[in-house]
Fold each of these.
Amino acid sequence: MNWQQLSGTEKSKYFIDEYLRIREFSTALCSRLEIEDYTVQPIADVSPPKWHLGHTTWFFEEIILVKCLSEYTRFHQQYRFLFNSYYKSAGQHWKQSQRGELSRPTVEEVIRYRSYVDNFMVNYLSNAEIGDDVLSLLEIGLHHEQQHQELLLMDIKFILGSNPTSPVFSEKPLGFASPVNQIWRSFNEGIYSVGASDGGFSYDNEKPRHKNYIYSFAISENTVTNGDYLEFIDRGGYGHAEFWLSLGWEWVNDNHIGHPLYWRKIDNEWYEFTLHGLNLLDLNAPVTHVSYFEADAYAKWKGVRLPDEQEMEVYLASSIDDSVEENEHEKKHGDESGVYHPIKGDAQTGQVWCWSKSHYSGYPGYKPYQGMLTEYNGKFMCNQFVLRGGCIATPPSHYRHSYRNFYAPHQRWMFSGIRLAKDI
Amino acid sequence: MNWQQLSGTEKSKYFIDEYLRIREFSTALCSRLEIEDYTVQPIADVSPPKWHLGHTTWFFEEIILVKCLSEYTRFHQQYRFLFNSYYKSAGQHWKQSQRGELSRPTVEEVIRYRSYVDNFMVNYLSNAEIGDDVLSLLEIGLHHEQQHQELLLMDIKFILGSNPTSPVFSEKPLGFASPVNQIWRSFNEGIYSVGASDGGFSYDNEKPRHKNYIYSFAISENTVTNGDYLEFIDRGGYGHAEFWLSLGWEWVNDNHIGHPLYWRKIDNEWYEFTLHGLNLLDLNAPVTHVSYFEADAYAKWKGVRLPDEQEMEVYLASSIDDSVEENEHEKKHGDESGVYHPIKGDAQTGQVWCWSKSHYSGYPGYKPYQGMLTEYNGKFMCNQFVLRGGCIATPPSHYRHSYRNFYAPHQRWMFSGIRLAKDI
Amino acid sequence: MNWQQLSGTEKSKYFIDEYLRIREFSTALCSRLEIEDYTVQPIADVSPPKWHLGHTTWFFEEIILVKCLSEYTRFHQQYRFLFNSYYKSAGQHWKQSQRGELSRPTVEEVIRYRSYVDNFMVNYLSNAEIGDDVLSLLEIGLHHEQQHQELLLMDIKFILGSNPTSPVFSEKPLGFASPVNQIWRSFNEGIYSVGASDGGFSYDNEKPRHKNYIYSFAISENTVTNGDYLEFIDRGGYGHAEFWLSLGWEWVNDNHIGHPLYWRKIDNEWYEFTLHGLNLLDLNAPVTHVSYFEADAYAKWKGVRLPDEQEMEVYLASSIDDSVEENEHEKKHGDESGVYHPIKGDAQTGQVWCWSKSHYSGYPGYKPYQGMLTEYNGKFMCNQFVLRGGCIATPPSHYRHSYRNFYAPHQRWMFSGIRLAKDI
Amino acid sequence: MNWQQLSGTEKSKYFIDEYLRIREFSTALCSRLEIEDYTVQPIADVSPPKWHLGHTTWFFEEIILVKCLSEYTRFHQQYRFLFNSYYKSAGQHWKQSQRGELSRPTVEEVIRYRSYVDNFMVNYLSNAEIGDDVLSLLEIGLHHEQQHQELLLMDIKFILGSNPTSPVFSEKPLGFASPVNQIWRSFNEGIYSVGASDGGFSYDNEKPRHKNYIYSFAISENTVTNGDYLEFIDRGGYGHAEFWLSLGWEWVNDNHIGHPLYWRKIDNEWYEFTLHGLNLLDLNAPVTHVSYFEADAYAKWKGVRLPDEQEMEVYLASSIDDSVEENEHEKKHGDESGVYHPIKGDAQTGQVWCWSKSHYSGYPGYKPYQGMLTEYNGKFMCNQFVLRGGCIATPPSHYRHSYRNFYAPHQRWMFSGIRLAKDI
């Protein structure tokens, strides 16, 4: 959406609509939760859902209201501290690993906080004279909230999944995946441009669009399935050091890892915990919730490799009918479809984020955001790997093919998967 | 209460009344909490209040219903695992430090669990033919629940106290303590008997009553006040190794300890967080929430020492009018008085548990309970120190002078205080 | 030895002889070591032998030379810091767990340091006018050095024992223990005095001698043998929570403990690493290198208990022919006999330190040393258990029946063993 | 050296000479050490020098003797385990962080081990019929030993530098660096080839030579000096989060980092510990022993950036007179010059390894070694950053411009430094 070309009144209307739509979706996502589910933090990576609802609100408060509305008074003095995630330039913040120690503010208080900020925001946005610089910040704030919508689903899944009573998030039964035929798509050696073009939203880390010399390669149209991955397990993949990175081998042994995060073996049968409950493992569905270590080991075991992120972007951008693709993506998201688990393994993207072999770092000519948002991306460019392609939990209007998601190589509570590549 | 001498019907009535009174008090204590307060676990020592409500119920389920009622079916199969605290003979249990990771069962489900078990229990107790052995187990179960009532207040205080918004548990204003004159009471050298007599309830660790050779000593009628302790701080007590045990000195330095747990210095003024809110420090009130390390260092700084537990019991038992004393104790408890903080520093016991210099171990001739309850006391007789005298949070009908409370030397989230002694 | 009654010249001669004898024995003990053996620290508890040689020298430097000899100049300014173990009043000290990180000073430099201090000491002691207060400090210094001689053997054993090549300390073959018949000795209820009398050396923690009310008990004349203990293992003792203290059960499981420290199972045969090499386990010899947790669990499994330290002292002091006993003890020490391993399981003391069930704390009326040595004993009276009776590595002239050795309940690199007791 | 073109006899002579020269240099490097210096391991990253001497010997034993000499018997059965660093395919290995716990084998035994293997090796190499495949392994073994020669100097420096007595490795006085004028060299946008060509030795990770699209950039001819870096410190660089990666900021704060590894502030004066002793900080000399975090923060503070490894290789390869450059490099190494510290800050390479912003990963088309050596490089391609250019401790005949050194971003005990780059 190229809103810069709209008139002031149109901009105002556009952003009020977007703001309300996106803000409401965050609370709607949580509507199935019990109060207790909003509050706990089973591991440091996973934040309590009520914290996400507070933090995304804090974000608008800090980047817009406090800066632009002279008459604005913060809802609660302590929230500045409690809902700051990691922005050192915004003052001190509560420690990430201790978010689950806080019973207060209650969910109800957080909801009141959201309303308070929303009222100010909508009021402020009604003003047709707001400059594009502020609207650009607002647009980042909306994408930030959408990022947290995906995090909410990841975190809710972890909270429910670590509970021995296996609570069900959605009662809607999951369908079954269809069998998949592996197809390789080939690309020729040459110079390819990668990165976000001007026009349309993107984060600072997707720019500038720039040239890369890429050698010829093939990439799989399908992601690795549960059935494929089970074969790796059954052939002893977790027990053979030769497939593993050195740090990966330590991770496997120190943490007694032997299968993807949500798999469970019960009475000699494999199950998978999903947001739709504990189901028999669907062998045709994409494997998900694997770490970089596991993705890399699987690829080595198959005698191939993971793609780098440039190859992945070239592949994603080359879809025969890109507009159809994006529409498809729209439909795939849980919000629309009510399906919160990847069950399409055939020629599809947008089901699972695929690990690339690329370390997350700045593109040539990378310019970070200025001000508080300089901390948004650049400072994490260390010991993280890039994932590409979006997943079932990614809000469709938030996604674009230049999107660079990133996680540490041992993390796997996101909907991560494996797309193979090879030299040709 | 010597219920063994009652008739079967009287026993039945007596125990049904006690059971209902005590069970209701647990939920009543929590009635001021938000759902979120029931759920979190800021540190491993502190359990979520809903866990206490479930665990005390599990206790009756395991020691009475499952054993004595052949038709009994457990409320939920997983609760056997989730609400077992540490009884290895009762099967596996959820890890203590991870209780706060569980959003389910919800508070509402736990309350339903309590009702389910209560119905079975009252029904079962209506039977006038129950043997005294089962009633003895029941009596332990009731005292166990009362122990957890004190833990509930301790844990609620920690949960609220670690929240930067300092939530208030009771709106009732705290009064002020009166000034205290230190009085020493002396005891002559000789043989003294210590421990619980037969008749009346006591735990296995209070028996048998036995003789001790005690040298002449004096003990303070008053516990150390906040004002006394502040002088220790102001004179640099935390910075001088010579007052501290070796492990205590490490504890102070590794954890940057410089004052009792709930003291806060704000704008150069000392405050204390209490269940009645954040108040200016009352210099006449007993110091509380100090570790054994702090109690011992304070005594050394004063040139005296902590009493041992035998001295403390001799002192407690020697109160001029013991029956008045016990009545007083009755009134002091928060339940009756609505006061959840020690504010009487003058000749009183029952305000704060006083650290003894005695390691917690079995008395000569100690016989642990049999069966599952063999794990109740004996297995903790290592690296714990005994505290004596009861506190404001101890249910009066739960207390007796032979009571041996015990904690590790670094712990201080209980209402612990300091009573000095010296050789004479 | 009651040296106070000697003349000044006799005192001088007595102490010079003792000083030289004891100091030389420390280096003699190490004479079998390679330079590399003097230097390493496999775990924090174990110090490099060269550190012991330096620290015992530092002790004389700090308590005598620096205080009493105005013209004395320290051998090396950094040694004050490097060889201070934990005396806060003597300034800062190098961290205990990092002693093995230091390649310098070399062994040769430490030996030069010893000679330097020895020369000053002998010179100083030649003076017949030295006051008894200084000679008392000197006497403590000599006992301190003897304590470290036992530590040297413990630490050397650990250093060699943790090496996969199992180096041999003494080539002298170990004999075999004779079979043992368990005999219980009984004591009547009554008041018993315990603690060191005046006259003769003792540490501050052994005083004052004081009365105890002791109930009738029986104590085993023999310590538990390897054969006895093996039965505990074979019957699954390490796998049954009911025998273990709560902290002990955690220790067993967290550290995968399944046998005494130096036992090794090779090709289904039990061996024991000793200072005489890796030998087949001698079933008649005393079990040694067990923790308090193991000793306590073994006693519970046998249906009896550990003695408390008062019972143990009463027992030790009651030996039918005490003078013979002490002579025997003399001969048992490795120095005289060349045997550095307990192989006598029959009616003997002095082979292994026996765990008592008593927590290490001050006797009634305990007065710690003044000055720097106030840190010698008192500050460790927390979370340690007392062991009694001496061991094969204890220098005979260092031992007396009132001796209170102490270790944390998980430690077991000392020559610790088990003597059972029971109520009668 | 293109030895493949030599005759069998010439090859034999060439490799025997090289083998003896390189093997002797390892022990020569250690000749200034005390036995104790060979033995300790102050931190997990630093290995005891005697371990390096053993491990490099083990390497030849495992890759050549055991494989190619049927009559060969290992020197000691346990060494296979003790001197394996991390090769899972070569069986179990002693844990890296515990190398300093081993007093045995002694230095003398390790030297005997070296002689034993050297005799077999020279004997074996006298055979003119050895295939090129084996000679290629041997060549890797020689480069492996040279890598460990650099590690030896790093580790010796750390061992001596962490000792409070600051021992001196070389008595030769260090000269002073000349003042430096910063000069930027520019490169145009275009396709550049990077990586090792065939002919000449290189590791698997330097291949294949491949094309990169590189944007125009400038790179500094000089590395950052101590004086430059001191300004960063004095301006509060370590206290401002905005210059630091998120992980770097944690590292700085958790470890209280405020200056390069070997800097010491004494009486308000900056000193630097070097292998030539503790010297006043030379402001004109290159800053060294900085982490990636520090290099990156310094560059951000200067408003520029670190080069990526491709830019660095293009720069290194473009030296006007490359052969002169390599000769210069030859002379710079401590071995020839007796200088073990970087003191040339002007237009020089080879003084300090310069951090690139590139994550260490496989080049397009990367093929790891086969067999045991597959573990040599590939398995470390995770969470490491590439350094380029060689340092004063790198054996000259070991170095080439395609060399990819790599370390984790917090490590800094190697001779690492900073070369700045910028977009133009």
Amino acid sequence: MFLERTPVTDIHMRTIAFTRGVPPDAAIPVEQLMACQEAVLKADVGVLQYGHKPGYEPLRELIAGEHGADSNEVFISNGSIQILDLLAGCLVRPGSFVITEQPTYDRTIATFRRHGARVVGVPLEADGMDMGRLEELIRREGRPDVLYLIPDFQNPTGSMMSLAKRRAVLELAERYDFPVIEDMPYRRLRYQGDELPSLRQLNPARVITMSSYTKLISPGMRVGFSIADAGLTRKLVELAEATYLSPVLLTQAMVYEYIRRGYLEPHVRELIALYRPRWQAAVDASRKYLPEAGLTAPDGGFFVGIMLPEGARVDGLLERAGKAQLGLTAGASFFADADDAGTIPGDRFVRLPFCALEPAEIEEGVRRLAKLL
Amino acid sequence: MFLERTPVTDIHMRTIAFTRGVPPDAAIPVEQLMACQEAVLKADVGVLQYGHKPGYEPLRELIAGEHGADSNEVFISNGSIQILDLLAGCLVRPGSFVITEQPTYDRTIATFRRHGARVVGVPLEADGMDMGRLEELIRREGRPDVLYLIPDFQNPTGSMMSLAKRRAVLELAERYDFPVIEDMPYRRLRYQGDELPSLRQLNPARVITMSSYTKLISPGMRVGFSIADAGLTRKLVELAEATYLSPVLLTQAMVYEYIRRGYLEPHVRELIALYRPRWQAAVDASRKYLPEAGLTAPDGGFFVGIMLPEGARVDGLLERAGKAQLGLTAGASFFADADDAGTIPGDRFVRLPFCALEPAEIEEGVRRLAKLL
């Protein structure tokens, strides 16, 4: 399959990039996508016209069916960040109050802030948010306009929200009457353990589900989707039409054709087979070279998150790493700056995206990181 | 070529839609696009990855070359409305002052308003804006943050800005120090007369040029571009990355391949051959059935705009047209509501997009319209 090995001999020369969560080129099913796009263009010139403003209709129906939703609850757009931006446009105003996990996806913090929201992070534990801190925060500061979570293999920590916490967060959402966004682009990439119900499965009325085909098929196709009540979905579609008129339909139709042909399930199995040894290498290397660090050993996804011990030498870490041919992302960007404890340990946080690197590169990268501290 | 004729016998039964400016399906070069996308995917898996945040790099360079610009002045995005939204995000704030032609593209008014701008329209004449009114407005209300124009075959009137007015508007822009957006999606579709220099050709430093391949290749591919100074372009790219991360690259690469293969120029000639009789029919029918109306007979583009005479029966026109199987767009939506004269004749304005209709349908549609007044 797609296990092209590069020679391990030159690994000490190579730059190793633990920067963004990008799949390797070899994980993109180019041949199948070529077949799909030819079929799509032959079948329906409509994908080259304006139209399907809520997203390519057959894909809407397919996603609705998979999630036990109605197709008028499904919205498909040019990638899930675009959806988050439109959701922010519908749900928040300057001064709105948004709660996220801490740390969380840096672009989520930036998106809600760009729309004028105050974003507060609640510390994340290995099994999800610190629920006591969440409730305390809501009691003190009032009902949030949105709570944003990545329950499965969280970005950037890899953490998995337990069933008890999933239930507890939804009870809070009921009690204080706020919507919960669950962002689940990594959910299908599980390397061990059992799947837990999604928040939507537990309480569809409270939950806005978001995901995309970026991590399962291709990032460049920019096909993301949301599932929300029909009223909010209608607002999203209206704002989307005002913003970009119609989405790019060709890639949405290609995703539909890809799934319709039965290509997705075997491809996900191949991805898991490709990524599992990389995940294992990231966990093992972190334990081996950084035994003092706080590690959320994930069961799936794209990331291992590491909290370096207090006192680790983190000043100028990115620059020093760059000189050692090691690419890192600034840990602080994953932390909303209004941590209710008042301390932001972001400069000690390191995210290791492992999917695009080979096991030997991952081990070498973590070894280089440890030497810098 | 693509002149598939439908029988004229049933024309009186048919719904005739003068609603949006959409090319007919037959004008979309599906076979060539299929060849292009296959070539693109074979050549570069990169179009399925994240990347090329300012737009597909080879297409940026090609557009820059065509317009005598530097590639770092070119930004390509998911359609030109998306670019207008991002431009508004960079150039206006709540309370900003934007001037447009009156009437103008309805989505432009809506986009600037959504960003909080006050939009004022300056009456359009057959050869462009009323320059006296424009200068009077600026003297009275101060420098605008943006002036937005469609100099070639304007939407919705078809009007063409004269060379004298192009020069005059740029002199005003210099004197009062404001940027001018020229939106030129229709420029290549000229059915008679000679091309005038674009505003960019007259004064590149003052002008933000926007266009797209929607009217020349396909709307659904959503490939629009802007040319602006490198500083503003950098801001656009940053806001775009924050909003949707990367654009959909596949369709941008297809457009590049389409042009690289030399397909565009003959296709534009075919489009002109297809649209010219439709344009002629729209102009002729307007003169024949609405001789009292104010008509800007355009030399190209997608639209004939008609100002019905005072006293024409326009109450409930859209509903009455609908019952007569005639689709119309509300004329008032093309008028910013702060016309400095205080009178908005939008309810007497009718836009006739003619490209997607056959000559006989156009004549029948205008005949139906005349009977309703």
Amino acid sequence: MKRISFEDGLIYSFRPELASVATVQSGETMEFVCQDSCGGLIRSEKDTLDRLDFNRVNGATGPVQVADSRPGDVLRIRIKQIQVAREGFLSILPKAGVLGDDVPEPKTKMVPLDGDVAVFSKGVRLPIRPHVGTIGVAPRDKEWTTFYPGDHGGNLDTKEISQGHAVYLPVFQPGAQLAMGDIHALMADGEVCVTGIEIAGRVRVQVDVLRGPSLHRPVVETPKEWMALASAPTLDEAARLATRDGVDLLSRGAKLPWEDAYMLASIACDLRISQAVDPWRTAKLVIPKTLMRHLPA
Amino acid sequence: MKRISFEDGLIYSFRPELASVATVQSGETMEFVCQDSCGGLIRSEKDTLDRLDFNRVNGATGPVQVADSRPGDVLRIRIKQIQVAREGFLSILPKAGVLGDDVPEPKTKMVPLDGDVAVFSKGVRLPIRPHVGTIGVAPRDKEWTTFYPGDHGGNLDTKEISQGHAVYLPVFQPGAQLAMGDIHALMADGEVCVTGIEIAGRVRVQVDVLRGPSLHRPVVETPKEWMALASAPTLDEAARLATRDGVDLLSRGAKLPWEDAYMLASIACDLRISQAVDPWRTAKLVIPKTLMRHLPA
């Protein structure tokens, strides 16, 4: 199995022109070895976010060229396994996060793992559920730092991009140029304090090039749901785009008139928040597979 | 058991000065008989929202005075049972809902129930989960039409205000002045098309006056969660207020420093959308009861 590490390739922006450090074939399984979002620089509670160079955070391992992928294709990335390090951290910073105005000073909390349990404090132990925070491809026409989420993926911070699930990304450039990083051992919808449990780890994925579906923006697949993801400067705008995409998918996928799909979404498809802090926000419309078995062509 | 109907009292705005049509004691169980949100005027697919007088929609049955409740108290309304009519409807309107700009013309869809299943179409049958869309008390100092959600409750459109759950509202005026209506047989988070399955029904509630907790805004309790609700003109602002309230509750309720509660919320408390259309939006921070057993004083 192919493996690439952040030591082989590490990017801080997704650009239309990215030089790959490896190539995979459609259908191949490979592993990405990832730093934590702060490049291993947070090692104790003395290390706070204000000391970091923000041009050097959220590095993504890659990019990897996917053979024979072309603009208009869709890349399906099935997350086969995420292995995380033994310790992660949470960190807050004035002016960052949903309540940034209320944060008096930077603070870091180290969070050791006890097997599959995060030890937040003596009394608060939480089962981990690792996900990939940043995953993306070379975008259509502008440069996005790995801090931002967008149509190309990037810093989506969507907790369902986790083991056993899949993310679908539109291909904008020849070879797609897949990169990922920013693993979280645990995060809730919203990522309100601006970090999850940030942690290093290894992500095993199976990558497929699909010619069937046509997507503008990322979609996540779980065993029971499709999620249409959209990112924008405000939650309201992200919510509108996710709803528009999701209703369009549902209309085509379930062969319903658009008006019926819109009404059905209102009673059966939750509109949710992936993250509200990155600094663009990501929303998701959740379509049960009972309503739509497959992504429409 | 006391019962009041929309024929006894029906309000189209929550105002500081409301004249009650009945009185209940703390601990008493009573029933509210409610019209659908459009006052029974939508009876077939020919009846569309553009024909309605928007000063006469979303009527709430009540108000009911709760004996011995005073400003600063909290009203707990436990939803014991919601019985709904045999048919409801969905309706869309240009410029309304998350995708209002995409709606070419008004359209209504009647949705009959087959027992506890909503028959959206021949192929799409969905189990119902009725909730109370509008529930509120006399507000502190201004008038809110029953169309709006706010600190007093109102058009919260929160799907968890359902049988077996409870909603907690701050009391702003002597006697609280409780009213409710706008029942939905089914709705998803977001209520993206601007309606759920709108339906008439009866709501049996048990009302308690609590002197312990102190709340600024509505809280919903389910068997496993507390939800701090907040409403504002934008999703971003509603999300910020819900997060601020929820983190404050968690800090006091779990006896954690504020910074720790903020970080814990980021990994364990989902920030979600109740509705994105009313025209103010309602967000909720979801606190698992494993982290906080009781509402703090």
